[in-house]
Design a protein that fits this description.
Length: about 250
């Protein structure tokens, strides 16, 4: 496996009393790293996940990797294979259902953010939005990064860790580089218009409008992606949304 992700390193070796906590942190770090790679599309559907290879890539022992893989299996993000595990291919139906759940959850997060966000947090949302508008529509990396930052700040500003965790669990379909390459400049503009409406609702502290705008944005965006890849309603899988690298 190509080494393409790393874990944070400690400045000093741990003492005996710290080893248990460090092991738990390493397991959590491995889980987050692998999960983000799957959800971002960096790791593709059906890509094999070999425990020893991942441990070498992350420069950790196999124990935290094994624990991370077990957590990912519980989330149904990976499935067992003969020599280990593989990234699970999410069906079109599942992706659609996940998007509906995410729209409801993140819509409510936007409502709470309108009520609870600090002025600095709203200013941070505005700054990300401005950077996104000023970016080149052909720059897939910036499009993905600013989209995640925009949504991430709003979810954090909701001040509800249970809600945040539920949103993360529902997010098996994310806006990633492969998806960004499939969308047009016109669709990028429409996404930015959605973000502007959400931002204005946050500034106005209008929870109703923020929730409705976020729900509409997530579902409209998902429908665009689905129509691009699968005009047929009974398409079995969304794997082409995580198409070949290039």
């Amino acid at each position: 496996m190509q080494k393409r992700f790393t874990l944070a390193a400690s400045d000093q070796p741990p003492g005996d009393a710290e080893k248990g906590a460090l092991g738990r942190r390493r397991s959590g770090d491995a889980y987050e790293t692998l999960r983000n790679a799957i959800l971002s599309g960096e790791m593709r559907p059906n890509e094999p996940l070999i425990e020893a290879d991942i441990a070498a890539a992350l420069a950790v022992s196999r124990t935290p990797v094994r624990e991370a893989l077990q957590r990912l299996a519980v989330e149904q993000l990976i499935v067992p294979r003969r020599r280990g595990w593989a990234v699970r291919e999410i069906t079109a139906v599942e992706a659609s259902e996940n998007s509906e759940v995410r729209a409801a959850l993140e819509g409510y997060a936007a409502r709470l953010a309108a009520e609870r966000a600090t002025d600095d947090e709203i200013a941070a949302v505005a700054a990300v939005h401005a950077r996104r508008i000023a970016s080149d529509p052909a720059d897939d990396k910036v499009r993905v990064e600013t989209n995640r930052e925009f949504h991430g700040i709003i979810v954090a500003a909701a001040r509800n860790e249970k809600l945040r965790d539920a949103i993360l669990r529902s997010g098996r379909f994310y806006f990633n580089g492969s998806v960004a390459r499939m969308t047009s400049p016109a669709e990028f503009r429409l996404s930015n218009e959605d973000h502007e409406i959400i931002l204005q609702a946050l500034r106005a502290r209008d929870g109703d409008r923020a929730e409705q705008a976020m729900r509409k944005h997530i579902m409209r965006t998902f429908h665009i992606f689905r129509e691009l890849s699968y005009p047929a309603h009974d398409a079995p899988s969304l794997a082409p949304l995580h198409g070949s690298k290039g």
